[in-house]
Amino acid sequence: MKRHFILSVLLIFCYAVNAQSNVTVFNNVKVDGKTQDVISAFKQQGFKYYEEDKALFGYSEYLDEEVELYIYENVGKGVYRIETINYVSDDREEAIRYFNELIDLFEIDSGFVRQDYSSVSGGYKVNINDSISKCKAKYFQKNQNDEDTTGLYQWIMDCKILDEGEKVSDKRLYALTDDYMYYNLYYKRIMFFIKKFENSYYLYMFFDNLYNKPIRKT
């Protein structure tokens, strides 16, 4: 876990020299490009766009139900987030059960990797008596390309991880391979949480392309 933290810092410096063809998707639409192009892609799937609210309404393959959808773009780089919102329940315990069932789906789906590697089995599941604020989770989206290590050597060179001529032991190479696969996942983050609004509970999901996300000003 400590190595992954160090790698996360390193990513800030080396991501710019690597292509971002492998990005987060929602309903087979890439979280990337111009807002209008993403809107058009969802319209082709049957989503309806409401100009006044800057929102789309349509079917989520992840949830098997209708959602409200918003698109966020970092001008000059591209879309960095697709947000979906859907009604869950007016009952707190039912909302927690809904969240836990969603966690079960993510845990058994090979297309997702839990961001918190140190979590125990069951991941982010919440006790029925816990606060609704604990209903939150972070995953990386995974596909077959993320297990392809053909770009490992070039990544090592681009990120200047090794000194010139430095020899690499089998143990170090194994660790670097693990870090490289983590790197492939790092920018494809999915977060979701339950939030109460007035007297009802809603599920919020963020599908992030961290390549394009704005840098926070300090």
Order of helices and strands: HEEHEEEEHEEHHEE
Mean pLDDT: 82
Structural class based on helices, strands and sheet pairing: alpha+beta
The overall strand count is 10
Residues in helices, as a percent range: 25-40%
Strand content: 25-35%
Radius of gyration: 19 Å
Structure characteristics:
218 residues; alpha+beta; 5 helices; globular
What does this structure look like?
The chain is an alpha+beta fold and 218 residues long. The protein has one domain (2-209). Helices cover 29% and strands 29% of the residues. The protein has 5 helices and 10 strands, in the order αββαββββαββααββ. It has helices spanning 2-14, 35-44, 92-108, 152-158, 170-186; strands at 25-26, 29-30, 48-50, 55-60, 65-74, 78-89, 112-114, 136-141, 188-197, 200-209. The strands form 2 sheets. Strands 3-4-5-6-10-9-8-7 form an 8-stranded antiparallel β-sheet. A two-stranded antiparallel ribbon has the order 1-2. Helix 1 (2-14) crosses helix 5 (170-186). 24% of the residues are buried.
Lay out the secondary structure:
Layout: H1 2-14, E1 25-26, E2 29-30, H2 35-44, E3 48-50, E4 55-60, E5 65-74, E6 78-89, H3 92-108, E7 112-114, E8 136-141, H4 152-158, H5 170-186, E9 188-197, E10 200-209
